[in-house]
Each structure stands twice: as structure tokens, then as C-alpha cells.
Write a structure and sequence with these properties.
This protein has 433 residues and is mainly α. It has 16 helices and no strands. The protein has one domain (9-213, 223-420): MFS general substrate transporter like domains (Growth Hormone, Chain: A).
């Protein structure tokens, strides 16, 4: 039953059609995360044009983008607290505006300092507020059943951002310059903000609904009564989680995930392909194909996570990713060999997210969203180090291949490490005796 006084005409229309409004919130969140992913992935297309126009070294450009990765992750646990304190709608719109400010400022930048400020700090903070923690928060609030599937869908938004935006960014950049490509991104940020304002609701109880699949109302979410408590809560939960070996194993494996996806491949694949004579538009097409395969793989991973031990899933995901990266240098970057790499690598690009979230939820309960924020920080530390390190490797050795071999090796290490995770005990919850 929906309480009419809480319901907009749009919400009531979906109810009359028999569509649980949680799916509309998921679609709105998907769009938000997809557009933010376009901002995260744009530097992969900007690397060469910035070198050409400003004469900046690839290592310096990579360092600026690495700061973005660090802040993207560091915001995670605090984003979870902000979402609780201020609400999903307000935080999402603010984040989109912040990203737009960073992207818009790029039209006027002339120095590396401005690149560090705009793409490192401003875009890093904005995208950090719309990261995986947003998806985990929406899934937890709106879904009691099919939660793994929903997390898989929302994780796939990153891949969709690649499929939709990167080839278009590359084509526009090559034809009319990189500023034209960023103009499209600005337009999408504005459109996404309008959709969030129109369709987003905070919780199902706000419109008189139960979470999808729930038989009874969930216990009230513990609020944060002040901004100071909002800032302190993630630190307090980190102190609790840090006593668990499970936290550190997942932190470390997600470090590997970030290093071997967004840090190395998303940031540098276009440049890597350029070293072997592949045009930027075609290389961006490879990234889009990886994103397309990942869309399938991540949704399938969400379905599997509802049914199987997350440790075994992570074993296969990290193992196959490591083997595919070790195979890449031996492809000679031919069409058929790259197609095989794209298939196996793409299927588990972010397939690690649903089982990681499930393992965290099983272990940390009500604190899981903020704990996932801290684990996601590990992902982005890995991404930052790989983005910078791969650029440094290219500058020192005129080749990215040592970084690719290292990435494959650490994936195989992560595949083995996951079996040290404990799954039978739950940590005491914050505030419990």
C-alpha cells in the first residue's frame, strides 16, 4: 500500500503498473554511476591529446590522474556516512555538480597545477561520492531479495559508461579536439542531475513501500545527528573492522582489483595500443568491448553471488584476470589475439564487486556499507599506484609491458589469498554489547 500524501504522480503511476519503485531507483542510480564512470574513464582518451597540446610528460599526467583515483577511493567511507546524513538525492546532485565544475574548468587550464587541481582534486572528490558505495547503499535500502543481482547491475554501470562514452569521446577528440568530447560529458552530467531530482527517493518507507522481497519493515536506520558524528562514524567503524583479518584480505585483494583494472587498463590501454600502432579510436573501441563483456560478467557475478561461496568466485575472477594479463604481451596486438584477451579480461573486469560486497555484508552486518567504503579505498589506492607506476614505467623503459607482467602476477597472488577469509563468524556491531 502506498500512502498518497507521500507520492508524486510519477511514483503512483509505476505502482499502478505493478512495478516496484526500487527498480526505478536502481535505474536512476545506474545512470548516475554510468555518467560518473564516463568522467573516470575520460583521462584514458585525454592522455595523448594533453601530451600533444601542452607537451606534458606522461608520468606527470598520470600522477594527476592518480590523485583522482586516491580521492575517488578516500571519499568512499565518508560518502556512506554522507548518504546517511544528507540523503542519496542531495549527495548525488552535489557530486554531479562537483564533477561538472572540474570538467568545465578544464576548458581553460594551461598548467599542470590546474590539471592536478581540476582532474585530481575536484573530479576525484565528485566521482568519489558516486562510487560503488552509492550502489551498495541503494541495494541495501531498497532490496531484501535479489540484492546480489542489483549490486551486479549497478557495478555494471561502470562498464556501460565505457561502452557508451569512450568510443564517442575518442572520435570527438580526434575529429574536433578533446574539449568537444568534454562538452558532451558536461551535457550528460546536466541531464543526469535532472533525472535524479525528478525520480530519486531515499527509502521505500518514505513512499509507503517495503523493500523488494521483504515480508516486514526493516529496523530504522541509525541516523547521524550532527556533521561531526558524520565525519567520526567512518573512523570508528574502521577501528572495529581493522581487528578482523577478513577486512585486510578483502582490502588487499580489492587493491589488486583496482591496480589491474582502472589503474592500468582503463587509464593506459589506449596509450599501450598506441605504442603498437593501433589508432586511438580503435583502442577506445577495445575498452568499450571490455565494458560490454563486463556488463554481462558483472550481472552474472551478482546472480552467482546470491548462490555460491564468494571466495571461490573471487578465486576464479582474479585467476582468470591474471592469466589474461600475462597473455597480453604475447598477443603481438593482432586482431584475433586482442579479441581473445578482451573476452576473458572483460568478463571479470568488475565481477569481483558482488562477491566482495556479500562477504563484507556477511561479516560486518549493519556496518557493511561503510566497511565496503574502506575496502573500496584499497581498490583506489591500487588504481592510483598503477596509474602512476605504469606511466613511470613507460617514461623510464619506453614500454608498458613490465607493468602488465606485474599486474598479472599480483592477480594470481590475490586468487590464492581469498581462501584465508573467514566466513563463519560475524563481527560485533557498532553500539552492541
Amino acid at each position: 500500500m502506498i500512502f498518497r500524501r507521500h507520492v508524486s504522480p510519477i511514483t503512483e503511476w509505476f505502482s499502478q503498473k505493478g512495478i516496484h519503485y526500487g527498480w526505478i531507483v536502481v535505474a536512476t542510480t545506474f545512470l548516475t554511476m554510468m555518467v560518473a564512470a564516463g568522467a573516470v574513464g575520460a583521462p584514458g582518451v585525454l592522455m595523448k591529446p594533453l601530451q600533444t597540446e601542452f607537451g606534458w610528460d606522461v608520468a606527470d599526467i598520470s600522477a594527476a590522474f592518480a590523485i583522482r583515483f586516491l580521492l575517488f577511493g578516500a571519499m568512499g567511507p565518508f560518502a556512506a556516512a554522507f548518504l546517511t546524513r544528507f540523503g542519496v538525492k542531495r549527495v548525488s546532485v552535489f557530486a554531479l555538480a562537483l564533477i561538472a565544475a572540474g570538467v568545465g574548468g578544464s576548458f581553460l587550464m594551461t598548467s599542470l597545477t590546474e590539471l592536478f587541481l581540476l582532474w585530481g582534486v575536484v573530479v576525484g572528490l565528485g566521482t568519489g561520492l558516486t562510487a560503488m558505495v552509492l550502489g551498495a547503499t541503494v541495494a541495501t535500502r531498497w532490496f531484501a531479495a535479489k540484492r546480489g543481482l542489483v549490486i551486479g547491475l549497478l557495478s555494471a554501470s561502470v562498464a556501460t559508461g565505457q561502452v557508451v562514452f569512450l568510443p564517442v569521446f575518442a572520435a570527438l577528440s580526434e575529429a574536433w579536439g578533446w574539449r568537444t568530447a568534454l562538452g558532451l560529458l558536461l551535457a550528460m552530467l546536466g541531464l543526469c542531475s535532472a533525472v535524479v531530482l525528478l525520480l530519486m527517493h531515499e527509502r521505500p518507507e518514505d513512499i509507503g513501500l517495503l523493500p523488494y522481497g521483504a515480508a516486514e519493515a526493516p529496523p530504522p536506520e541509525q541516523g547521524l545527528s550532527s556533521f561531526a558524528k558524520t565525519l567520526v562514524a567512518p573512523i570508528r567503524i574502521l577501528a572495529m573492522a581493522a581487528r578482523s583479518s577478513t577486512f585486510w584480505i578483502l582490502f588487499g585483494t580489492f587493491f589488486v582489483c583496482g591496480a589491474t583494472t582502472t589503474g592500468l587498463v582503463q587509464t593506459h590501454l589506449v596509450a599501450i595500443c598506441g605504442d603498437f600502432g593501433i589508432a586511438p579510436v580503435m583502442a577506445a573501441g577495445l575498452l568499450a568491448a571490455i565494458g560490454a563483456f563486463n556488463f554481462v560478467g558483472t550481472i552474472a557475478s551478482g546472480w552467482l553471488s546470491d548462490r555460491f561461496d564468494g571466495r571461490w568466485l573471487l578465486f576464479w575472477y582474479y585467476g582468470l584476470r591474471g592469466l589474461s594479463l600475462l597473455y597480453l604481451p604475447y598477443t603481438d596486438f593482432g586482431f584475433y589475439e586482442l579479441s581473445l584477451f578482451t573476452l576473458f579480461y572483460g568478463l571479470d573486469w568488475l565481477a569481483t564487486v558482488p562477491p566482495t560486497v556479500k562477504l563484507i555484508t556477511d561479516r560486518f552486518g549493519s556496518a557493511s556499507t561503510i566497511v565496503f567504503g574502506w575496502v573500496f579505498l584499497g581498490h583506489q589506492i591500487g588504481a592510483a599506484l598503477a596509474a602512476w607506476g605504469a606511466g613511470l614505467t613507460r617514461s623510464l623503459y619506453a614500454s608498458y609491458l613490465p607493468a602488465v607482467f606485474a599486474a598479472g602476477a599480483i592477480c594470481l597472488t590475490a586468487a590464492v589469498a581469498v581462501f584465508a577469509i573467514r566466513t563463519h563468524a560475524r563481527m560485533p556491531q557498532p553500539g552492541s554489547a
